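Narrative of accomplishments. A recurring question from our advisory board has been how the design workflow behaves on a single, concrete structure rather than in aggregate. To address it, we present the structure tokens for one chain from the evaluation set, followed by the sequence designed for it. No filtering or post-editing was applied between the two.
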């Protein structure tokens, strides 16, 4: 039985990390177990559907700016190709309207603990917040999210850390709190 929620958002670092299995990066310290977990989750999504994206295509644009649409190089690239091919298939991908507002979105939650949230990642939170079921955001390696997890939880947004030990250690290393 899968532990993947019926619907979820996928931060771009998940497919990027999955690509490390076939496209090793000598500068990467991402553990093999993390890479394998990213691969497992991506395969579940591409098999069963349940991806949530914004209807303006900002998340998809981020995917194709960081991954290959050929689908030939790694599981992350295969995911990008799958999103491209299925983005209008309502049985596999749910598109949610969000409203851009300067460097943020009207749907981004108002919380003091989120004032310094990365502008480039706000779209994921805005989409999750705008969706009636508030689907979780799958997160692999971005340690900054570890510091925001409690504030996000307080506004009803769940982050599923696929590599929680790695992310927590990186957060402690960078921010020491």
């Amino acid at each position: 039985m899968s532990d993947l929620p019926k619907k979820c958002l996928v931060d771009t670092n998940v497919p990027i990390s999955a690509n490390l299995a076939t496209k090793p990066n000598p500068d990467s310290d991402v553990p093999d177990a993390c890479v394998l977990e990213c691969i497992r989750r991506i395969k579940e999504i591409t098999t069963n559907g349940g991806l949530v994206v914004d209807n303006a295509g900002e998340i998809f644009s981020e995917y194709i700016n960081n991954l290959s649409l050929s689908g030939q190089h790694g599981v992350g690239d295969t995911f990008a190709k799958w999103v491209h091919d299925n983005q209008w298939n309502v049985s596999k991908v749910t598109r949610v309207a969000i409203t851009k507002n300067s460097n943020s979105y009207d749907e981004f939650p108002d919380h003091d603990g989120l004032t310094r949230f990365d502008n480039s990642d706000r779209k994921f939170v805005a989409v999750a917040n705008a969706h009636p079921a508030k689907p979780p955001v799958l997160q692999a390696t971005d340690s900054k999210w570890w510091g925001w997890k409690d504030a996000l939880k307080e506004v009803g947004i769940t982050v599923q850390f696929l590599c929680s030990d790695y992310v927590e250690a990186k957060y402690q290393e960078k921010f020491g709190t």
